[in-house]
Design brief:
Blueprint lengths: L4 E8 L4 H14 L3 E8 L7 E9 L10 E6 L2 H7 L3 E9 L14 E4 L2 H8 L5 H12 L7 H9 L4 H21 L17 E4 H11 L2 E6 L6 H7 L9 E4 L3 H13 L3 E6 L1 H16 L4 E7 L16 H6 L8 E3 L4 H18 L2 E7 H5 L1 E4 L19 H4 L49 H21 L5 E4 L5 E6 L3 H7 L8 E5 L1 E3 L5 H6 L2 E6 L5 H10 L4 E4 L8 H14 L5
Parallel strand pairs: 1-4, 4-5, 5-6, 8-9, 8-10, 10-11, 11-13, 12-13, 16-17, 16-19, 19-20
Antiparallel strand pairs: 1-3, 2-3, 7-14, 12-18, 15-17
Helix pairs in contact: 1-5, 3-4, 3-6, 4-6, 5-6, 7-8, 7-12, 9-10, 16-19
Length: 582
Amino acid sequence: MAEDLNWAVGGEAGDGIDSTGKIFAQALARAGRHVFTSKDFASRIRGGYTAYKIRTAVDDVQSVVDRLDVLVALTQRTIDENVDELHDGSAIIYDGERSWEADIPEEMTAVDVPLKSLAEDAGGAIMRNVVALGAACELASFDVEYLDEALEKRFGGKGSKIVDNNKEAARLGRDYVRENYDDLDLGYDLETTDSDYVLLNGDEAIGMGAIAAGCRFYAGYPITPATNVMEYLTGRIEEYGGHVVQAEDELSAINMALGAARAGARSMTATSGPGIDLMAETFGLIATSETPLVIADVMRSGPSTGMPTKQEQGDLNMTLYGGHGEVPRFVLAPTTITECFWKTVEAFNYAEKYQTPVYLVSDLALAVTERTFPPEAFDMDDVEIERGKIVDDEEAQEWLDDQGRFRAHADTDDGVSPRALPGTVDGAHMSTGLEHDELGRRTEEEGERVQQVDKRNRKIETARDEEEWDYREFGDPDSENLVISWGSNEGALVEALDLMDEDVRVLSVPYLFPRPDLTDEIEAAENTIVVECNATGQFADVIEHDTLTRVDRINKYTGVRFKADELAAQIDDQLASEVPAQ
């Protein structure tokens, strides 16, 4: 019996596709199965194609693949969009009573279920998607009762009658398939386990990491695909004494977050590419005033408004180099959903330890993907908080000048000055976006200007020496074929390893600035390929700059994430056809 099931539901925006997929994903997770989801949705509230895909197995899954076994098609476009992923024997659930006539390839199994009629029997046509879930459960030999808890979670706030009606709708879908397609056997018998998994997406993991790291103030403006960070924090951070503010725009959001950080709170904001553009001016103020702040950039297709609901890793240059003048910063890029949690914790620590802004660079693929994890993947006992050089009343005395004034921007060997929070005795000081001296007073004196610029830049050199800027490694460590990626491509690459003809060494880099020196690794390789979701190869350019060595590139900028089997084929083709880089 097949244990790896690929399922999808598709229709138009506004058809409840996302909630339907989430219910099924939660049911599978509750049954002790691993889940990896993928979403395709239009940049509009209603209309336009949208789909929710789930890959599930007993073993861990880290990527989607080019295969669909069961498809719930609420529109003909759903079938047309996914026909290349369907295979002989794939089952397509559709409603033959609706006005459209489904055009289903002959080699597929058409499962005609009167979704709307059965939903009306259960209490309302709005439940047709739940009827379809019940039908899909029967086709996959998955007990429909596993849906019950997910339905209770989704509809519990609307009353017990709504919950009961949805449970009945699921059973009507199951019974219809059982009675009318009793001779149909797709070969699935989804095994369940006693494992207890957490279902989480990247935005939620960033929010959870922020709370664990001690963040107590968040200001943001809604923007796809970063909004879920704010949604996760709202109602949760307040339990820990924190606050969420929905600002009127991105400029207000980052300045509110800056104000909270100046007051001593661990503070952050999150946005996407257009918001990062707007925040660039304040970004310089954060660095010059030496204020610790975390800024999450959840990337999407650009430039300008671009494709707000599509995948891309196009903001790397902006986060590395954006802003006028020379601005010291840290740039971290989580490679998995769990890393969204842990890199958020690190981001807050780096921000305070070195008194610099930190970009936490995620992307849409991480933001909206839901994946299962064992609870111990987020062990709060492993969270360490470093607040850097915050001084108390007694320590502040050590940093006064001969007139008793606190030197908030004191020139130190490591570049990091003492930090006095409001209320610290003798810690009163000023900071400004204008160039300043050690006391924070405006200056244009050449020597003081050079001193402060060198001091701020020295923090990065200190961090290079004090911290570990490493990478995650997979595959054959002795292979002469080296593949390098950053961000969300890790999962697809790891699964692609088992599908490639060639042995490959994979390096997944979460630290973009400062970053590991890959010179030795590239010199030891015969072939080096950099994989990323942008058109120009921004990280490949960075690596070539660092190592003075040309690298090959695999770039995808269609708005869709890499898939494991697709990526394996592209790497094999590149290794087979190209002359090793010189």
